[in-house]
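So, can you check these tokens?
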Amino acid sequence: MDWETVGRCVNRALHDLEPERSRRLDGLVNIGIDETSYKKGHKYITVIVNHDTNTVVWASEGHGKSVLEKFYKQLTPEQLSSIKVVTGDGAKWITECVNEYTPDCAHCVDSFHVVEWAMTALDEVRKDIWHDACSEYKQVKKDNPCGKGRPKKDDPELAIVKAAKADEIKGSAYMIKVLCFLFDTKYHMQYIISF
């Protein structure tokens, strides 16, 4: 089959399924803005999603303020005023566009990025704890050359140290699970982290 034929088939199907593409932009209340890379990270695409219907309503090649302005300039004044919440990754260009075109809406960081940043922070804390423990171990080993070999299983000091470290790590992991749960609930839009 020829690619031109495929293209015509896709265009006909799109026209049959959605004769007026601009209607996608009607009734937007809670939207999300994000950019993602493709072609091995060399090209970007900016995507706008409707959080209420979980559908992509607009996409364009590139990223930055100029690309996002194309989306906002397509909207009518009624469509702009209907937008109440905009989520994004905290990029400056998103904040500037939101403040310029929809100043009355709530602008917040989306749950994906909050959880991603929290997981990164937890990973950094875990690495720091591990490096500190390794440094302490090396120092103890250096200061006490007689204590060669494995520590005894019934060593009470070792059990106390292990329990304290495990509780510290489990507590951090539990907080991450709670954070993930909050953002997975269907009422997550009520828990907005404004900036």
User: Anything to note?
Assistant: Residues 21-109 form a domain with the Nucleotidyltransferase; domain 5 fold (CATH 3.30.420.10). The CA atoms of residues 96 and 192 lie 19 Å apart. The chain has two domains: 21-109, 112-188. Helices lie at 3-17, 65-74, 77-82, 92-101, 111-143, 156-184.
